[in-house]
Each structure stands twice: as C-alpha cells, then as structure tokens.
Amino acid sequence: MKSLKHLFGIADLEREQIEYLVNLGDSFIDINRRPLKKAPTLRGKTVINLFFENSTRTRTSFEIAGKRLSADVINISASTSATKKGESLLDTGQTLAAMQPHVLVIRHSLAGTCEFLAQYLDNTAIVNAGDGAHEHPTQILTDLLTLKQAWGSPEGKVITMVGDIAHSRVARSHLLAAKKLGYTMRIVAPRTLLPAEVERYGCEVYHDFDEALPGSDAVYMLRVQTERLTDSCAFPSIREYHEAYGLNSKRLQAAGDDCLVLHPGPMNRGVEIATDVADSVRSHILAQVEHGVAIRMAVLTALCGGQAKERKTGSRKKLPDEAMRAQGTLL
Amino acid sequence: MSSTLLIKNGHIIDPANGIDKKADLWIEDGKIIAVGKHSGKADQSIDAAGKIVCPGLIDMHVHLREPGQEWKEDIESGSRAAVAGGVTSMCCMPNTGPHIDHAGIARQIIERASQVGLCSVHPIGAVTKNLDGKELTEMRELARSGCVAFSDDGLPIWHAGVMRKALEYSSSFGYMVIQHAEELTLTEGGCMNEGWISTQLGVTGMPVEGEDSMIARDIMLTRRADARYHVAHISSKRGVQMVRDARAEGLKVTTEAAPHHFALTEEEMLGFNVDAKMSPPLRTEEDRLAVIEGLRDGTIEVIATDHAPHHEDDKRCGLSCAAFGIVGLETMLPVSLDLVRNGVLSLSEMIAKMTSNPARLLQLDSGTLNTGSEADVTIFDPEATWIVDRETLLSKGKNTPWHGKQMTGQVTHTIKAGRIVFENGTIHG
C-alpha cells in the first residue's frame, strides 16, 4: 500500500488506503472512551489547524484528535490571522510551514487550496479539512467508520443523499468513495442544486425525495445554506424546500425500519431535517461526530509516519450494543 | 545611401498574392522591391534554405497592459515577445488603465511602440467610456487617432441597446465591433468551462451558453444594423455554427480563434492548473474539434492569441481567484503549425489567418509581400524543435500552459520595415 504524504481527497486514495484509515480509526474509538484519554503516539509532533472558514466541529475534532495523541496542536482561524491584513494565502502557508510543523490541517472556501499550497511547501503534510465544493475526505472516512459500525461493510448498500449537491464537498467525496468501495449513491435534489453532468459519477439521480426513499439503507441529509439557496435563485423559499426535500419521520417510513439517518452537521432543524428524525434512534448523527475524532487520530497518525500499528479492537470489554454493532467484518 | 537585404533560397509564402514557391526576396530601404529575380547587389543577405519566408505575422488580439499595469507587461516587453514569435503588427485591447477610450491614450501607445521600434501596435478603441457599457466613446476621433476597431474586451458589451448603437455607429464609418461574447449573468463566479471537470474540481463553471447566447443576440443586432461584427476568441461549437450560418446569409460577421482553443481542452484544468485558466475557458473536445472545423472551412478567418500576461502574484493564489488569461505571442506559430501537420490547413491558409486576413478585416497595409510595401517579414524553420521554458519567455507574463512542452516550428528571423529585429533568439533593439 502506498504511504500517505498528504490527504487532499478521496480521489487520491486507493480502496486499500481508505480501508486502512477506517480500520485505524476504529482502533482509536477505544481511547476516546477511556477515563484517561491520552496516548503518546504523536508526542513531539506539531499540528497546525489553519481554518479560513468558520467551523466548530471539524476544528474541534482535529484539535482533540491531535491532543489525545499527545501532539502539540495550534489553532489559527482566518478572522484573527494575517489574512485580514492582506497577507496572501501562499504567504500564510509558507510562514506557518517555516515554523516546521509536521501537519497543516487546512479548511478554505476555495477548491484546490491544499493542492495549490502543497506545490510550495516541502516538508509539511497537508490535510484537507474541506476545500470549497471540492472534497472533505475526513468527513467521508468518518461516515465510513460509522457505517462499518452499523453494517460491517457498505458494499452493496444504498445511501440516499439529499440537498445542495452542487455546492457540497461531502457529496463529491462520497460519490468518489462509493465507486471505490462498491456502494450506491442515490442523490436527490432539484436540478438547480445539482452540478453539471453529475451522473458521470455513476450515481442514481432523483428529483423526487419520496421516489428515492424505498430501498435506501441510509438517508444522508446535507446542510442547507439558507442564504445561498435563495440568493442564487436555486430555491424560492425555505418553506418550499422543507416541503419537498426535508426529512421527517412520516416521510422516512417509506425507507423501511432499518434505514439509518446521517448528517455531517451542523443541522438546520426544521429545514432539511425535522427534530423527530434528528433525535430518533435511527439517527447516527452523534456517532458520526464521535467517530470523527477517531478518524482524525488515524489520519494524523498515518501522516506522521504511521508508526502506530493498527491495534486490535477487543482488547477491552465491549458494551453489549457496541459488540453487536462491531460484529461485522472490517470494511 | 540605400541598403539592400536579400533573403535567399527560402520558400516564400505570400497568401495575398498567391505566392507559394522557392524564391528570393529583395528588400531595399525598408521596402519590398522584388520576389524572385532581381538584378542588383545585396549589402546583406540571409540564407533561408529550408525555411519559410512569409509576411510578418499580425496578432489582432493582445493585451499589452501599458499604460497602467506595467508590472504585467509593457509595450517594450510585449514588442520583444511579439517579434520573438514572428509578429510584426499587433492590436492591443483597450482594458488598460486609463482605458483606450480617448484619443490621447491611443496616440500615446502608437508613439511608444514606434519608439521601441520592434513591432507596430494598432490600438483597439473602447466601445464605451470606462468600459462600463453605458456611453459610447468618441469612436470617430479614436479611429482618426489610429484605432483600427472597437471593443470592450475583457468585458462584453452587455447591454443590448448599447450594443445595437455601437454596431450602427461604428459601421457608419466602416469599422467593426469586436465582442468578448460572455453573458455575465450566466458566468458569474465561474473560473472554467462548466461540465464534468468543473463538477469534479468543485469549482463554479462558466456554461457554454454564456458565450453562445451573446453571439446569438449579437448576430440578430448585426442583421438589423447591417454592421460589421467580429467575435473575439471563439471557443464553442454552437458559436462557430452560428457564425457560419450568419456568413452564409451574407452578414458581415467574422471571427478569430486563439491557439489554446484549438490545441487544448478543459482537461488541462485537472489538478487546478491556473495557467490554463482563461476566458472564454478551454472547453470540451467536441468544441475544440468544432473550432478546428471552423478554421478548416473558413468560418474562422483569423488566428489571434488573446495574449494576456499576468504577474505571478495574480496567478499564484489558487484556481478560483487566479487571474484569467495566458500569454501567447511566443507560441502562436508553432502551436498553429499543428493545424498544417494534421492536414487541417495548407501552410498558405494558416499563414493567411495570421497575415492577410486580419489585415483585410482591420484595413491595415501590412500582411502581404506586395512590391513597394513596408518590408515586414517573418522567417521560420517549420521543423525546428524547442522546449517552452517560462523563465526564458520574453514577455513579462510567464503564465503559459505550454511550459516544458516541445514545440515544432521556430522563428529564426523577424524583419520590421526592412530591419532585422529578431535573429536566432536575439533581439536587435
């Protein structure tokens, strides 16, 4: 298996690498649940979280992941950084790289930011924490870990993703992962929220949510950015959006009892997802958040030399429901 | 005392005069005095055996950035790049700062180019004051001051009413309007062609309909105004077809293609390549082939570069915010020679699209080897190969998608008004 130098996107990963990272993440779930949440794996390593877009969960998730593995973690957010003073993206990147961190975790509203910076930064591993509408690989690895816990393997399953596919990096990364791992992506959106030629990903395209639900193994609701929706004439009103593409428990019945509900967060309750679904037993939304930390621990470990061997799960006592969820084979 | 320059043993191609043969070319006191036999003695001679000798090339679409953005390019650096590419006359677009929207700027540019003395520069006057699309410039005055056509290039003349008036007014004294055809409400925020590649990269696309819809509108306005309309840098299949149909109908519609639009496709963007970002954007293979077909059947009469130098700082900021445009003067000829090598055009047809055809559209005296005309001559070796190196380009702009690529066809001599201004890699300033 090729070792990882950077993590730009799912597009660059082979199936084997995806499975490795998910399995490594699985092995880190354990640490996060212990009373003493610390391992020495990344002692002496420096991780900089450079966030040009607002983010609570992804930034916190990377920060906790680094700290629990004993790395020194520094957070920089664009609102307080040099970029406000007119420093270019490249200068900010080069300045931070000159301080010799091992890993630079970057979120930016422009697609391709990581690929761009990597051309100029030599000794720093770059992790894409979301770049425009391009990719968000750690979110997808997180989802895959969640699905592994639920299903064992996603192969052959149908994930129905609903919302603003056009502007979604989560959608693109999932569409790429689906092809590599053999699950089906069913995407649901009005045509104003679909990118050009999206069917070339090999996905199923629906405009009617209710038609897409039967046969779905999971429903994945995307966050709706309300300003974007109405400003760009992509949708006339939030009310009409919720009516056509919002998920509620009544609508979810069409998908059958085993259908999971996922959301990358943060949720707009009452817009793309109703509270009765968000808080239901089918919702794995908080599990996604928990697994996000484990996956980011795995990614940081892999990029810092990957010294930590994939550790055996089962070295601790499992809670009953967890044991059931984990009984599937590795992805 | 007169001086005589003899270019001997070359293969002379002069499309305007139907000359395509091995012959000598005689130049005296800056003028062409004979193609073929001449009884006289040369003070200086160039052996052009194995080379093509043709009229100096004309690039009717360049951005020279002077005045206003001299860190990107200036008339001197642009002229050096031009003659290195075999270009002896070029037309510069008015999106300078200040814009070429009044006579003083046009005169200043012409004067500066003549001081540099390498390449003629013919300004294209702005259609609207400040290029803001609202009020027409003093077009007659601009024409009298040396402007050869009108355009707001970089921006479209978006307002249909203004476009109609611009076409009507300029055609009353025989000038054409050159349109950067782009419906901005469709392309806003876009940085490349909209399609499968833009979807994969997650960037906003510019749908081809942005170009097509404006060409369609403009052709209707041209029909009513009985005006002269020229589509700049055509890049789309439907656009080419609309121009073809308009010409068949007898409308005075012409167009040009840039080398990148017939040589490259949107695939170049994979990997977020800022040096392949331009407007109109590189499009699909289907569009590229349609542009080639337009060149082949004569729908597209002109090859022009849309030479758009930018400073590194404006390109090194990621794809979405990088400036639009690439340099083209120094690669125009070898890239276009592929059309000949691939059997699309004869060598004479290709040369006509860079010499006599643009000269005719712009009513220039250049572009031929007529006896008695000013001796602008380009000599090139069609088989010589070289590697494009952004560091050695003479343009200040280093933004080329061909960096590191091999080119076949190299200019060996460029002669401006009888003077050798470029010779085997060296500028004689």
Strand order of the largest sheet of chain A: 7-6-5-8-9
The low-pLDDT segments of chain B are none
The total of helices of chain A stands at 13
Rounded radius of gyration of chain A (Å) = 19 Å
Tell me, rounded to a whole number, the average pLDDT of chain B: 97
Rounded mean pLDDT of chain A is: 90
Low-confidence stretches of chain A: 307-331
Q: Label the structural class of chain A.
A: alpha/beta
CATH fold annotation of the largest domain in chain A? Rossmann fold
Please describe what this structure looks like.
The complex is a heterodimer of chains A (331) and B (429). With 331 residues, chain A is α/β, with parallel strands linked by helices. Chain A has helices spanning 15-33, 57-68, 89-98, 113-118, 137-151, 169-181, 209-212, 226-231, 238-245, 249-252, 275-278, 285-303, 320-325; strands at 46-51, 72-77, 103-108, 125-131, 158-162, 184-188, 204-206, 218-221, 260-262. Chain A folds into 2 domains: 10-136 and 292-310, Aspartate/ornithine carbamoyltransferase (Rossmann fold, 3-Layer(aba) Sandwich); 137-286, 3-Layer(aba) Sandwich (Rossmann fold), CATH 3.40.50.1370. Chain A has 13 helices and 9 strands. A 5-stranded parallel beta sheet of chain A has the order 7-6-5-8-9. In chain A, strands 2-1-3-4 form a 4-stranded parallel beta sheet. In chain A, helix 6 links the parallel strand 5 and strand 6. In chain A, helix 1 (15-33) crosses helix 5 and helix 1 crosses helix 12. Residues 307-331 of chain A have low confidence and may be disordered. Chain B has 14 helices and 19 strands. Chain B has 2 domains: 4-53 and 373-427, Urease, subunit C, domain 1 (Roll); 56-362, Metal-dependent hydrolases (TIM Barrel, Alpha-Beta Barrel). With 429 residues, chain B is α/β, with parallel strands linked by helices. Classes of the chains: A alpha/beta (331), B alpha/beta (429). Chains A and B meet through helix 4 of A and helix 6 of B.
